[in-house]
Amino acid sequence: MARVPLLEAADLPEEYRYLFTENNVGDAHIFRAMANAPELMRWYMRYSTRLWDVLPEREREIVILATARALEHAYEWHQHVRLGRAAGVTDAEITAITDGDLAALDDREGALVVYARGVALGAPRDAD
What we know:
- It is a single chain.
- The chain is mostly helical.
- Helix content is 61%, strand content 0%.
- The protein has helices at 18-21, 29-34, 38-54, 57-70, 74-86, 91-99, 107-121.
- The radius of gyration is 16 Å and the shape is elongated.
- The termini are far apart.
- The mean pLDDT is 89.
């Protein structure tokens, strides 16, 4: 049982209903729970849409996994290990993100992990 109500588009004020229809959130509980704070959901959708638009799926999942690991977000990690594998992230690469030994990743992907961790922890660096 959910700790917060899992809302439907019809439960939202009219000006926020588009968040369900335009973003194709389906039945994902995270979005249905987030709908309890529709303004936050609106800003999150803006941010995540940019992430989806800019990075290829595999790189996006690597960034999400690196961020989830850095912030110790078990729920996000659990969800995106599965999604990452579906996007082609290997178990060796997932282990590399977990352990911080980025040798299993190519240079670009390793740089994405380092940068994502830095942003998540409040200390991004341009070069290492």
